[in-house]
């Protein structure tokens, strides 16, 4: 599998740096993880040559010399094969609970998600909607991730098994497999999925592709919120969860019956029971793995999230907010 | 091959058409090629720059291309269903028009799938459909169904052509050597022996029976791409039969138009008579009424139940500031116009019926667009997007150029085919039909030259 990826990568283009990084990764054994999820935060740019040469063994058995500046130390994240990335983390069943009473549309989750996944500002895997269920009800902020449904309409329609459901509950996309037919986007009732309409502006070719990171993003393929499985493998919380200043997001494991928002760790069942947790549009039968706690006893008035926004973002919610003021 | 007198006459009349290409045909061919070339440039841009050059965005993920796809697969029903059913029912008047019908089928089935490929973001990965197929996906059903259907309709067309190829081979046509060789090869040694005749007959009957369920499967599967999703306006049990019926209907319309054009262009008034238009007009009327009924019950149930999302789509279709006028056009020209044109004896004339068909076919295209776009513009969660191109779909010139290229390809193939084989099958005329055709043309020859519109 590893070999295949390396070949695949060098075939893609002969960018010297990219080739060398992979060779180095193979040669150093323990550094093979340079291609795994761990390096997400450490995206490096080419530094200037030091003149110091390092001898390395290339995958086809040749000794080569590269400049030491081309070598990079990476986190010791687990190397995850494609097969592992498809089956998921054994014994886990991930679940998320979103407390609508605490959200004030600070948008820290959106920013963190975009940073983590190298998304341009206009692309939001995680978005915050302003919901108003009917004329009488009060509007509330509604962060929307991928719901990682247990009966996922998107997975059902994929013709090439590019998007798949794992044992641990996650729905991921293999963007090396995806043909870009967009059927999953049409099938997803929550409009979660986004398409790479053009070549990604940021050069992400250094990343060895993995469905767990959705990197590097590929033109003409579909992507979406992935619950950051590479972070979870390292025992870390998804970035949206840790970025939220108000502890809106609880992430955890249904099998262990625990969820945490970083501040408190509580029983998932108890939380859902006490706070009347519900799943969005239960009637669709998609069985989401994301639960919402109703916006009761709110920490902030809804206007707080609106007034603080820059004009371009305000425009999104103008209709709802102006209706409110009348 | 021995020709009877009637066959000889039909052949003599059509010989010049297939022997000479002519300046006018060259003109049209180059015109169509130019359009296709322009489409090729658009396609190059789409591949090089990505789908950003189209009007499709994250909400409206499909647009013109899918509408074209449904449209072309729809008109392919002309040969499959119309010609297949008439064959099984042993309707004699079908014989002069079956080739036109089956050519429509083959050409449209060839062009249709190209449009679904244009929606695919990664051309370079199409082989994944075969390497990693998932049988659960309606797209995989589509791939299987359409390829089977295409093979079936090519065989159906070819079987009816074998005897004619033998005639072209033996006639020593004034055509280049390579074409004679092709005719010879395609005639696969047909000499008209009783056993050969019998085998062709059996195969034709079999294919006529096979092609009908195949065609029905193709459009049902296609409709299920939409019907299987949880989207308002799509998630409807009526979609399978609705699409099938709409397809036969639009196929009939295109067949009538093609007959009208060929009859005029190649002066085939003796073979394609007014009766053909009137009979096909009747078929169109019945199909139009059935299609109208389906349309009515689809929208009535949605409107009456007035579920939130369904209402949103219906509102877009009915409101004049959104798709109201198009919706009106699709239903007036797509349902009422053909029915009334055929119903009134005054307009039950080839020209009028052909004109009504033209409007009907355009309306059916609009209808396909109205199935796709308003639903995609009505996601279940509020869009809350300020980028107008993400909220409202409007096709770009790239999409229009490729759409026109598709239509140009259709005409180009038709033109080239009509220069390669005779539009009216020659071998189909047995002696006994001589009388029949004469009779038909005698009753209608009076007004057959009068072509209104």
What would the average pLDDT of chain B be, to the nearest integer? Answer: 90
Rg measurement of chain B, Å: 23 Å
Biggest protein-protein interface? A-B, 47 and 44 residues
Which fold name corresponds to the CATH topology of the domain at 83-149 and 223-293 in chain A? Alpha-Beta Plaits
Q: What spatial form of chain A do the alpha-carbon principal axes imply?
A: globular
Number of strands of chain A: 13
Strand content of chain B: under 5%
Give me the Rg of chain A, rounded: 22 Å
Shape designation of chain B: globular
DSSP strand count of chain B? 0
How helix-rich are the residues of chain B, as a percent range? Answer: over 70%
* Estimated share of beta-strand residues of chain A: 15-25%
Tally of alpha and pi helices of chain B: 17
Question: What is the CATH architecture term of chain B?
Answer: Up-down Bundle
Tally of discrete structural domains of chain B: 1
How many strands, what sense, and barrel or not for the largest sheet of chain A?
5 strands, mixed
The number of helices of chain A is: 11
Find the CATH topology of chain B. Formate dehydrogenase/DMSO reductase fold
Distance between the termini of chain A: 61 Å
Would you kindly provide a written description of the structure presented here, covering whatever features stand out?
The complex is a heterodimer of chains A (326) and B (453). Chain A is of the alpha+beta class. Among the domains of chain A are: 2-79, no CATH class; 83-149 and 223-293, Alpha-Beta Plaits, CATH 3.30.70. Chain A has eleven helices and 13 strands. In chain A, the strands form five sheets. Chain A has a five-stranded mixed sheet with strand order 12-11-10-3-13. A two-stranded antiparallel sheet of chain A has the order 1-2. A two-stranded antiparallel sheet of chain A has the order 4-5. The longest helix of chain A has 15 residues, at 311-325. Chain A is globular, with a radius of gyration of 22 Å. The model of chain A is unreliable at 1-46 (pLDDT under 50). Chain B has 453 residues and is mainly alpha-helical. Chain B has a single domain (5-448), classed as Up-down Bundle (Formate dehydrogenase/DMSO reductase fold). Chain B is globular, with a radius of gyration of 23 Å. Classes of the chains: A alpha+beta (326), B mainly alpha (453). At the A-B interface, β4, α5, α6, β8 and α11 of A face α6 and α7 of B.
């Amino acid at each position: 599998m590893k070999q295949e990826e390396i070949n695949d990568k060098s075939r893609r283009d002969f960018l010297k740096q990219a080739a060398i990084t992979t060779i180095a990764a193979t040669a150093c054994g323990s550094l093979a993880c340079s291609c795994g999820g761990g390096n997400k935060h450490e995206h490096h740019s080419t530094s200037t040559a030091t003149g110091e040469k390092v001898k390395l063994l290339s995958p086809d058995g040749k000794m080569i010399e590269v400049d030491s500046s081309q070598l990079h130390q990476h986190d010791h994240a687990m190397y995850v094969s494609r097969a592992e990335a498809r089956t998921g983390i054994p014994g886990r069943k991930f679940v998320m609970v979103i407390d609508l009473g605490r959200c004030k549309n600070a948008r820290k989750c959106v920013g963190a998600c975009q940073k983590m996944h190298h998304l341009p500002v206009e692309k939001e895997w995680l978005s915050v909607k302003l919901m108003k269920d009917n004329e009488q009800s009060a509007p509330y902020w509604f962060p929307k991730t991928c719901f990682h449904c247990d009966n996922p309409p998107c997975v059902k329609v994929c013709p090439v098994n590019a998007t798949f459901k794992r044992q641990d509950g996650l729905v991921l996309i293999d963007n090396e497999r995806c043909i870009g037919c967009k059927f999953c986007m049409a099938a997803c009732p929550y409009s979660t999925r986004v398409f790479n309409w053009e070549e990604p502006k940021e050069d992400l070719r250094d990343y060895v592709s993995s469905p767990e990171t959705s990197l590097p993003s590929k033109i003409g393929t579909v992507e979406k919120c992935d619950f950051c499985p590479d972070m979870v493998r390292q025992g870390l919380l998804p970035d949206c969860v840790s970025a939220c200043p108000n502890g809106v997001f609880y992430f955890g494991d249904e099998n262990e019956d625990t969820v945490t928002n970083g501040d408190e760790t509580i029983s998932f069942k108890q939380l859902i029971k006490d706070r009347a947790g519900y799943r969005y549009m239960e009637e669709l039968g998609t069985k989401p793995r994301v639960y919402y706690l109703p916006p009761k006893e709110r920490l902030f008035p809804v206007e707080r999230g609106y007034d603080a926004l820059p004009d371009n973002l305000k425009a999104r919610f103008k209709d709802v907010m102006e209706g409110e003021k009348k | 091959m021995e020709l009877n007198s009637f066959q000889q006459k039909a052949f003599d009349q059509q010989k010049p058409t297939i022997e000479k290409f002519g300046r006018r045909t060259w003109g049209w061919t180059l015109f169509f090629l130019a359009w296709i070339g322009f489409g090729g440039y658009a396609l190059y841009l789409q591949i090089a720059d990505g789908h950003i050059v189209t009007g499709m965005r994250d909400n409206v993920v499909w647009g013109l291309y899918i509408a074209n796809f449904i449209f072309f697969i729809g008109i392919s029903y002309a040969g499959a269903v119309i010609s297949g059913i008439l064959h099984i029912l042993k309707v004699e008047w079908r014989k002069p028009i079956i080739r036109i019908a089956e050519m429509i089928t083959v050409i449209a089935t060839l062009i249709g799938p190209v449009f679904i490929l244009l929606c695919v973001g990664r051309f370079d990965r199409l082989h994944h459909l075969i390497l990693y197929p998932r049988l659960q996906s309606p797209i995989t059903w589509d791939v299987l169904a359409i390829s089977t259907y295409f093979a079936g309709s090519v065989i159906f067309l070819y079987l009816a052509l074998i005897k004619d190829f033998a005639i072209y081979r033996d006639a020593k046509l004034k055509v280049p050597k390579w074409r004679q060789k092709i005719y010879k090869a395609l005639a696969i040694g047909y000499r008209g022996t009783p056993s050969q005749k019998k085998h062709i007959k059996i195969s034709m009957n079999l294919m006529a029976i096979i092609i009908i369920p195949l065609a029905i499967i193709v459009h049902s599967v296609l409709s299920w791409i939409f019907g299987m999703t949880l989207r308002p306006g799509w998630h409807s049990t009526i979609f399978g039969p609705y699409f099938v019926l709409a397809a036969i209907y639009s196929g009939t319309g295109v067949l009538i138009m093609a007959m009208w054009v060929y009859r005029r262009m190649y002066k085939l008034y003796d073979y394609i008579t007014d009766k053909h238009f009137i009979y096909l007009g009747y078929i169109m009327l019945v199909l139009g009424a059935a299609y109208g009924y389906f349309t009515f019950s689809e929208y009535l149930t949605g409107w009456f139940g007035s579920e939130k999302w369904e209402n949103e789509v219906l509102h877009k279709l009915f409101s004049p500031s959104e798709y109201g006028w198009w919706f009106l056009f699709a239903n007036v020209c797509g349902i009422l116009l053909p029915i009334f044109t055929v119903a009134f004896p005054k307009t039950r004339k080839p020209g009028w019926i052909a004109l009504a068909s033209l409007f009907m076919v355009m309306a059916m295209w609009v209808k396909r667009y109205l199935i796709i776009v308003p639903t995609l513009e009505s996601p279940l969660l509020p869009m809350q997007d300020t980028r107008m191109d993400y909220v409202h779909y409007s096709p770009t010139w790239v999409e229009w150029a490729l759409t026109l290229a598709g239509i140009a390809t259709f005409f180009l193939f038709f033109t080239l085919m009509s220069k390669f084989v005779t539009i009216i099958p020659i071998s189909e005329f047995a002696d006994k039909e001589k009388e029949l055709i004469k009779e038909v043309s005698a009753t209608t020859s009076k007004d057959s030259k009068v072509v209104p519109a």
